[in-house]
Amino acid sequence: MKILLVGINTRYVHTNLAIRGLREVLKTQGNTEWEICIREFSINEHLDKIAGEIFEEKPDVLGFSCYIWNIVSVKALVRRLRPVLPDTFILAGGPEVSFDCDRLMNEVPQLDAVVAGEAERVLPVLLKGWSEGSLPRDVAGVVWRLRREAGGPQGLNSMTASDGFQGMTSTDACGMVVTNAATPDTVDLNFLPNPYAVQEDFRGKLVYVETSRGCPYNCEFCISSTFKGVRFLQPERFRPILRQLFANGARTIKFVDRTFNASKTHGFQVLDLFKEEAEREYEKTGPEGTYGLSGDIPRAHCEIAGDLLDQDWLQYLQNYPTGMIQLEIGVQSTHPPALKAIRRSQNFADWKDKVRYLQHDCGIPVHLDLIAGLPHEGWAEFRKSFDEVFNLRPNHLQLGFLKVLKGSGIRRQCTQYGLKYCPDPPYTVLKTRELSHEQVLDLARIEETLERYYNSGRFKFSLEVVLADRQSPFDFFDALARYWHGKGWFQREWSSRSLFENIWEFLMEQPDGRTALNRKLWREALRFDYFVAERPGQIPDFLQRAEETVQDKSWKEEIRKDPIWQNRIPESEGMDKRQWIRATAIEYFERDIPTGTTEHSPGKGGWYLFYYGRKPTQYFKVES
């Protein structure tokens, strides 16, 4: 019997942890004669192509891993594949199908079964029975279809609901849908096999791992609140998984643990282990190896709770190797009534300075998340939340929108809170009692400008300069988004160069942009960001200096010849003159932008050398 497990990811670089884990579970708990395969696609691929590749596998069992981002594609694929794979047992599982399985079975009669909840215990039992021709009458956690067609293990024949079915039953045009009892047991992570046991090339991939399941919080917008308690994987059982991932080229490891710092002991042990294995890999490859010269250091991406950041965590993280960890914290809101409504007790004021310390003093990239559309939070309240979070200058500020997920408490209370949401995945909020649909659209445009101009990192210095005299960063991005909307710019694709031109046009239309001092300061900051963003080819007119003099050209030549660069940029020693020129740019700035000079008096400028051989771009001020 051939079993094919399919994941459809949001991006090509992502990996599906679920199908890999189930593959290994089926190998250990299933029939040794089964052929178990996995395939991954992305939602950006054409469905005809995906369906064609699945069909050519000719599986006896076809299982889909379902999430809010791919469920529409999964439904379409099941409908396309059923006519050409009439004898294949097609099933679905995952968080998007675990809470209204019977409805999904009615919507997609081509499906044979749905696994609700954790599948590691359920799937081996279900497939053993199916392969032997028996009905899954007693397999907990399964909703399945008994078809009207005679013959085969799923043939209805003359059976009725009274023929020994213990679950709830209903009938439709295709037969009988049986909803078995829910599985009473949760999975012990320590008895699960290594999901990455098969040799794969993970270079350039974002690899997902888990060392815990569950969450100590019960946020009403999250389906993790439907599970009680937190289960942990023994850290040493994680070591061989991580060692193999590093050996296979993985460098970005994202922990799917809902609250990585739920247990201090566990968190420290896992991160100790991560550091040990990363250093072991470094020692194996050496300074000239895989990530010694390139700077491609393994990085752990962990989602943590800000209110659990105590002094022990701060001390631990400040001593962690630079570049080896990245943190994500869901602030969601700083408005107390909104937090109370979603049952997320926290006080942002108590831990915001700790985040600032980790980001700016320890050099640890911190992603902070906000959710627009929460109960009791209107435009003014969200503006305040945005400004409070933005003022920490996180590495990344995610402005997301409430998703009214199946199984979540917020969906059960949507009438109470006046929530209107899209009935189709991802169930994004459309309006609330406090937030109109027009305002939701305005926030969506703010989110897009935030992504282009702040989260992209390309306007780091210019945004600091422009925002220095503004009380509300939210108002700035709101004004920028409205300007873009008025110009029709959201309907077009823009190059990096064009983004500079667009924001310059916007700034020149602002009242404070009409002063000569501001124009000069903003222009210098934009020029610096432009040189950092990418090696300039053709520089926009408004960012060009006066015509280069013979003395300037001579000075640039002398700067490039300076032997100091062999020490500051070791790889330059092996470059010939042409390569060195192509890898660098030299420019004079009237103000010392990187030091944060924002006063309206001339700062001490100078020449800078920009080196583009690494990402991010390195820049060095040339000593006089």
From TrEMBL:
SUPFAM superfamilies: Cobalamin (vitamin B12)-binding domain (SSF52242), Radical SAM enzymes (SSF102114). It comes from the Bacteria. Residues 201-447 form the Radical SAM core domain. Residues 1-137 form the B12-binding domain. Its cofactor is [4Fe-4S] cluster. Keywords: Iron, Iron-sulfur, Metal-binding, S-adenosyl-L-methionine. This is Fe-S osidoreductase.
